Amino acid sequence: MKCRICGRKAAVNMRQHKLALCRDDFLEWVPQQVERFIQKYKMFTREERVLVAVSGGKDSLGLWDILIRLGYRADGVYIGLGIDEGIAYSGKSQELCEKFSSNHGLTLHVVDIRKEYGHPVPVMSELSRRGKGKPCAVCGLVKRHVMNRAAREMGYDVLVTGHNLDDEAAVLFANTLHWEGEYLLRQGPLLPGREGLVRKVKPLCRIYEKEMAAYTLLRDIDYIYEECPFAAGSTTTYYKELLNKLENDHPGSKMTFYVKFLKSRQSGLFVEKEKIQQSLHPCPNCGQLTSTDDLCSFCRMIDKISQ
Ligand code: Q46
Ligand code: ZN
User: Fold this and answer.
1) Distance 130 CA to ligand 2 centre (A)
2) What is the predicted pLDDT for the residue at 95?
3) In terms of Cα–Cα distance, which of 186, 208, 191 is closest to 256?
């Protein structure tokens, strides 16, 4: 297989985009895509101060690398959750974030939850008796709070996270399966800032997880391979596996699922009932309500088949 751009031997074949690229062109293509989405969803500008939440994983470290290469003013924040079961997950991930920032001469802020709040996350979870045995509910709460606080207190304009397309599609799948209207209204590449809440954005929301894995590998970025020990057996992991099956048989379906959701919402799929009804008018032929100015889709279909 040859690179679509230069004709040399391809290193990465992306069936989802019907695109194969060599190493060099792939390493240019990924940042170009990220830049495109930063602009499209009006996430931030080169004048703004950006804070990237890094976990030591491929997505957040890869994203930090991309933002620096694109010329953004991006610093990092690492939250030490104190998860030390089995593989000393937190210690190892912190080391990798520190190594990345010192290798590139970047600023990394570290917030140690144990020092800051007296207990590591798993103990906080036990004490608060939230979540059935797993600390994830408390962990999510802590991360959201601390990231926002760090960004506000240090005067950053925007908080950036490394959620990729696979993450977003899995969350969307869960929200759709349970018709979580509120969440569906809010899920997206950008959550605008308001009083007390800093703007949050996801520049990798349209980049596949396997594209990020290839990017960090080809860029030689050292990241933590192991997942958090509490991630095993979660419903998100299960939904990701289901979506991977679908993607394998129909390349591009994950992207279509997510992008069409964003488009449908923009065109009003999730607005309040009254607003939807206001924008409907009677079809000039049959009188049934339709969103187009012309014949309803039923009458158009009848029109077509009777020609
Ligand atoms: S929530 Fe749960 Fe994650 Fe926190 S405890 Fe680990 S798995 S890190 S994304
Ligand atoms: Zn009609």
Assistant:
1) 53
2) 95
3) 208
